[in-house]
Amino acid sequence: MESTKPGTDEMYCSSCGAVIKKAAEICVKCGVRVSTPGLQPTQTAFSEKSRVAAGVLGILLGALGVHRFYLGYIGIGIVQIIVSIITLGIGSLWGFIEGIIIIAGGTWRDAAGKPLRKYNE
Q1: Is 72:110 a contact under the CB 8 Å cutoff?
Q2: For the segment 6-46, what is each residue's pLDDT rounded down to a tens digit?
Q3: pLDDT at position 93
Q4: Dihedral, CA of residue 9, residue 11, residue 13 and residue 18, to nearest 10
Q5: How many CA atoms lie within 13 A of 26 on its CB side?
Q6: CA 5 to chain centre
Q7: Distance between CA atoms of 35 and 107, rounded to whole angstroms?
Q8: Least buried of 50, 80, 118, 120, by fewest C-beta within 10 Å?
């Protein structure tokens, strides 16, 4: 079993522990995908949208679907406005609850499919 220390351009495979290149997409030893295709090691898979901003917008302006517009979901934002109007404001609870879920750390993605960054990342 080869147990060498990885160099500056190397890392351990998360599946088998073999030393592989950081730029590798697939481990040459076990065949498991170790990185997202097309991403360079310095790029991030997280959205540039703020979790805190989306949550606060949902809590304060959820009736207008502003948090959905912020994340790029135009269609759902329009639906939230219509629901709030038809229900005479009761539908605003929908956006308020979504805002709380976003702030509490629920798994939310922007319209491009990228997850919102956690607070400490």
Answers
A1: yes
A2: 778 888 777 777 888 888 888 888 887 876 555 554 455 78
A3: 94
A4: 90
A5: 4
A6: 32
A7: 20
A8: 120
DSSP category for residue 64: G
Sequence-ordered strand ranges (E) for the chain: 10-12, 19-21
Task: Tell me the pTM.
Answer: 0.61
With tokens 């929908």, the residue in question is 94
- Burial class from Cβ neighbours inside 10 Å (0-12, 13-18, 19+) for residue 96 reads middle
User: In 3D, which of 64, 56, 51 has the Cα closest to residue 110?
Assistant: 51
Asked if 69 contacts 77 with a C-beta cutoff of 8 angstroms, the reply is yes
The larger pLDDT score, comparing residue 57 to residue 38, is at 57
